[in-house]
TrEMBL record:
Pfam families: Abhydrolase_3. One of its GO terms (molecular function) is hydrolase activity. SUPFAM superfamilies: alpha/beta-Hydrolases. InterPro entries: AB_hydrolase_3 (IPR013094), AB_hydrolase_fold (IPR029058), GDXG_lipolytic_enzyme (IPR050300). This is Alpha/beta hydrolase. Residues 88-291 form the Alpha/beta hydrolase fold-3 domain. Keywords: Hydrolase.
Length: 312
């Protein structure tokens, strides 16, 4: 059954803590350079980036296990009481070119604690040292392993930013193969179009402290490689309706000061038109992947909605 309202504004004004965090963000070194030239300069000849280590406290607060998918590390975190009813396969963001950030780990911990779920974190290889196709292959392998040991209907795919793209792309490949599907799909500020073709995105850019159109287009071209960056294979926004129709219930969370808000709105409309139970939650003045700022009112609301989504 489709939800009544496809788009809901959850926070009409930013919390005081969110305002303070944004003030700090505006004065810090940007995660990504703010122009294509700077992006290429940073990527040229760089040392292979390393994933931020899991906090030592996790082994005290949770049950932690490790395994591999195509030779790449997967960390599974269970509540201290044991495996949750739902198991999340989580993909971190970073434009496909950055490893697991330090801020991703608290987000994972918050989802385990507040939702009572188990979370498997795939530390996938990054572009350009590894092709995007390898990222997909590793994601496929991780899914196959999880689906062997858990009921696929109780697996939720989740990711933020580029990780949201990876989660969605995995679900679409599974649907195309007509195999077992995940029970639900949760996307945090997903990157849906590598080309950012919608002209409405330009109006959001001055408010986005992290993402810039030129930088993302340069990154998207690098990720696409020899493929068309505007093709559905690498830009899920353009997936045909008949393929979208096979997706499970989907929820998207995006801030209004995030370039990806425009494509998130378009995509939820396409999902609804395809008959998918889909909804977008928006947060006024919230930055890209704001849910990783876990102490904020906005992040707590995301966790509450995610828990409700899993309980429904």
């Amino acid at each position: 059954m489709l939800t009544d309202n496809p788009i809901e504004l959850r926070s009409p004004a930013p919390s005081l803590l969110m305002r303070a965090v944004k003030w700090v963000m505006a004065r810090a070194e940007p995660v990504f350079p703010h122009d294509a030239e700077g992006f290429h300069r940073r990527m040229t000849g760089r040392q292979l980036p390393v994933d931020a280590p899991m906090p030592v406290s996790f082994r005290r607060d949770f049950l932690v296990g490790e395994w591999e998918a195509e030779g790449h590390r997967v960390v599974t975190i269970h509540p201290k009481s044991g495996p949750g009813e739902w198991h999340m396969l989580y993909f971190h963001g970073g434009g496909f070119v950055q490893p697991m950030f330090k801020v991703h780990w608290p987000l994972v911990a918050a989802m385990v604690k507040h939702c009572g779920i188990s979370v498997s974190v795939l530390l996938y290889p990054v572009v350009p040292e590894s092709p995007h196709a390898e990222q997909d292959a590793v994601a496929d392998s991780a899914w196959a392993t999880l689906a062997e040991h858990h009921d696929p209907a109780k697996i939720i795919l989740n990711g933020d930013s580029a990780g949201g793209h990876i989660a969605l792309a995995l679900a679409l490949r599974l649907a195309k193969a007509c195999g077992p599907m995940p029970g639900k799909l949760a996307l945090f500020a997903p990157w849906l179009d590598l080309t950012l073709a919608d002209p409405a995105i330009a109006a959001v850019e001055p408010n986005d402290l992290m993402l810039k159109i030129g930088t993302l287009r340069a990154c998207g071209e690098m990720v696409a490689g020899t493929r068309d960056p505007a093709g559905a294979e690498v830009s899920p926004l353009y997936t045909p309706t008949d393929e979208l129709a096979k997706l499970p219930p989907t929820r998207i969370w995006t801030g209004r000061h995030d370039l990806f808000i425009i494509d998130s709105r378009t995509f939820v409309g396409k999902l609804r038109a395809a008959g998918v139970d889909a909804k977008l939650y928006e947060y006024e003045a919230a930055p890209h992947v704001f849910m990783a700022i876990t102490p904020t009112r906005e992040a707590k609301d995301v966790l509450r909605l995610l828990s409700e989504f899993l309980s429904a």
